[in-house]
Every structure is written in structure tokens, then in C-alpha cells.
Design a protein that fits this description.
mainly beta; Immunoglobulin-like; four-stranded antiparallel sheet; 0% helix
Amino acid sequence: MLLLPLFCFGQEPHAILSSLNAYKQTNGILIRWVIKGGDQCNGTKVFRANIQGHFELIHDIPGICGNSVKDETYQYFDSNPISNNYNTYRLEMGYQGFTEPITIFYADFGNQQHKVFSDFQNNSQRILFANDLNRDALLQVFDSTGRVIHSESGTDNDFVIQSSNLKSGIYIYRISGVSENPMQGKFYLAGR
């Protein structure tokens, strides 16, 4: 299993921590932190921000944590992250306060590697896709005649297509460069 830290900050996450990382797994998100040797705290609480941005307690580790001599590693596995969204976590290190938040995107596409979401308020289509290794992805959008009407590339795991300039109809998209075979799908625009 490949573990890649996402959104690791260059600054220290907390005075008693040497590291705090989040790792996307196939069935959830692993949060791992290391308490510096010689530092301790009275319990650790793991919080995750909900869709509205309010942090909620999702796990509590009671008792004394840390080691008086050596670094001590702890982890929590969030088996129920918010799917197809950014998940933001922070820890409460006993009475020493909160860590800086860390953020990671959790994609869950079922048996596919991509999904399209229509955003009618912003008049756009958002295509989410699996790109855990941050490879250079190429998106091409084709109209019903097979003509490329939009093309862009990036290393993230989503593309946003502004649909205000597009006519009603079915559009085919292809994402290449991320996996062995290109990912393909379609979206439909009506009422233009």
C-alpha cells in the first residue's frame, strides 16, 4: 500500500509534534502524528470539519500520550470521511491546544475512477477523478461531431468546465495521462 502525504505544511504543526500527516487510503483516511520525545499531553482528540466548516470530534484517545525519552507515533483511521470532498482535520493535544489544520481530498467513485458533478449555480461541470500520484492529466472535451471544444491539463484531481459558452447537447470527455487507460465519460447540457 502506497502512503503519500498530502498538504503537509512546512511549519511545525504544533509545539509538541514533530509531524502531522494525512494519507488517502482506498477505504478512508489515515491521520498520523508524532509527539516529540520528552513531550507529553493529557489525551488527544481528533476533529474533522463538516461540510459547513465546523469541527466535530470524531475520536478521543484518553490518558497520557507521548514518551519522556523518545518520539512516539500515533494514528487514527477515519473510515467514514466525506466522499468526493476535501476533509480537514485538527488535533487537540490535551491542555496544550489545537494543531494547525491539515486538509486532504477523499475521492470515492464506486467502481469507476471518475465522476461528473453539475453546478447549476455557477453554470459549470466539475469532473473529479482519481489522481493520487498527482500525475499530469490531460482533459479533452468533445462535442457531438467529435471536435475538441475544450482542452486543459493539470496535476490535481479535478477539472471545472464553464458551460455558459456551450450549446445544449451531449459532450464526451476523456482524461489521459493518469492511468494505463484513458478515463471517458459524458455529460448533458439542456435548455440553452
